[in-house]
């Protein structure tokens, strides 16, 4: 029989990184999704698929606190979404890494300066710590030789790797990637996918919205389909004609 201390420890180890229960997702007064059920555990890698405007980005925006949870309940990295206050949002974001289709790098400064800017904005002060952390994340994405390049001196795939490095700076539990391969050619897209999958294997939870069904078929993972205002997991694997299935 475990004593109470053991029970508490066991419960903490078994805590999901994020969950939604009967969640409603809305853009202003527009209900986009309802009845959303989702549980994200450490190391999970999920695809979000569905037509343009089906609500994938809106779900990600709800998880980051950018839009309020419109109904139901949810939690991300220990923050209750239904009770989230504006002052908590910056702290929630420190537990999240966010990656976009268009990289969103600052084009007027080097890779290293992009990363040091993001670190300092989240409270890192000591120069040595900043330098060490930048080296670590560039190593994780395979870009240690590019620290002093300007973004426009990098390929699209390299720029996305810098964006992923930036997302990793504060060692987030959950990475949210919204169409991360949308601007990349097929071969570069595969490289980004392999990088994201390797991060999940090391324990990061990753949610990736994508229209890239070639990638989904080539690198199968749990897949959630957004359709008609609802989210359902595609059970029994990915249909061979996934692209048609989703149109
Ligand atoms: N800022 C906003 N204000 C009002 N409505 C919005 C806003 N952003 C999105 N919407 C609407 O919410 C719905 C869901 O959009 P969302 O961007 O979440 O879909 P998506 O599945 O991510 O689409 P895509 O595949 O194009 O990225 C759409 O009807 C869209 O028009």
Give the arrangement of secondary structure elements.
Blueprint: H1 4-13, E1 18-27, E2 30-40, E3 45-50, H2 56-63, E4 71-76, E5 79-80, H3 89-93, E6 96-100, H4 111-121, H5 127-140, H6 156-168, E7 174-178, H7 186-201, E8 205-209, H8 213-218, E9 222-227, E10 230-233, H9 242-246
Parallel strand pairs: 3-8, 3-9, 6-7, 7-8
Antiparallel strand pairs: 1-2, 1-4, 4-5, 9-10
Helix pairs in contact: 5-6, 6-7
Bound molecules: adenosine-5'-triphosphate.
Domain ABC transporter: 18-247
GO molecular function: ATP binding; ATP hydrolysis activity; transmembrane transporter activity
GO cellular component, one term: plasma membrane
Can you describe this structure?
The structure is a single chain. The protein has a single domain (18-234), classed as P-loop containing nucleotide triphosphate hydrolases (Rossmann fold, 3-Layer(aba) Sandwich). The protein is built from nine helices and ten strands. Helix 5 packs across helix 6 (156-168) and helix 6 (156-168) packs parallel to helix 7 (186-201). It has a six-stranded mixed beta sheet, with helices on both faces. It is of the alpha/beta class and 247 residues long. 35% of the residues are buried. Residues 1-9 have low confidence and may be disordered. It has helices at residues 4-13, 56-63, 89-93, 111-121, 127-140, 156-168, 186-201, 213-218, 242-246, and strands spanning 18-27, 30-40, 45-50, 71-76, 79-80, 96-100, 174-178, 205-209, 222-227, 230-233. Adenosine-5'-triphosphate (ATP) binds next to strand 2 and helix 2.
């Amino acid at each position: 029989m475990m004593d109470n201390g053991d029970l508490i420890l066991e419960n903490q180890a078994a805590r999901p990184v994020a969950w939604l229960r009967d969640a409603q997702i809305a853009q202003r007064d527009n209900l986009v999704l309802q009845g959303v059920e989702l549980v994200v555990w450490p190391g999970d890698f999920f695809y979000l698929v569905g037509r343009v405007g089906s609500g994938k980005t809106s779900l990600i925006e709800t998880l980051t606190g950018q839009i309020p949870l419109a109904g139901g309940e949810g939690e991300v990295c220990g923050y209750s979404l239904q009770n989230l206050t504006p002052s908590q949002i910056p702290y929630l974001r420190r537990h999240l890494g966010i990656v976009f289709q268009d990289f969103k790098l600052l084009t007027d400064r080097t890779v290293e300066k992009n990363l040091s800017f993001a670190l300092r904005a989240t409270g890192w002060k000591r120069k040595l710590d900043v330098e060490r952390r930048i080296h670590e994340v560039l190593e994780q994405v395979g870009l240690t030789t590019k620290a002093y390049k300007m973004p426009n001196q990098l390929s699209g795939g390299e720029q996305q790797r810098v964006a992923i490095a930036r997302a990793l700076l504060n060692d987030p539990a959950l990475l949210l990637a919204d169409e991360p391969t949308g601007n990349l050619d097929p071969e570069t897209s595969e490289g980004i996918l392999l990088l994201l999958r390797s991060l999940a294997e090391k324990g990061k939870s990753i949610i990736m919205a994508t229209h890239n069904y070639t990638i989904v078929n080539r690198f199968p993972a749990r897949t959630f389909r957004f359709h008609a205002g609802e989210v359902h997991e595609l059970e029994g694997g990915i249909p061979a004609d996934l692209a048609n299935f989703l149109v």
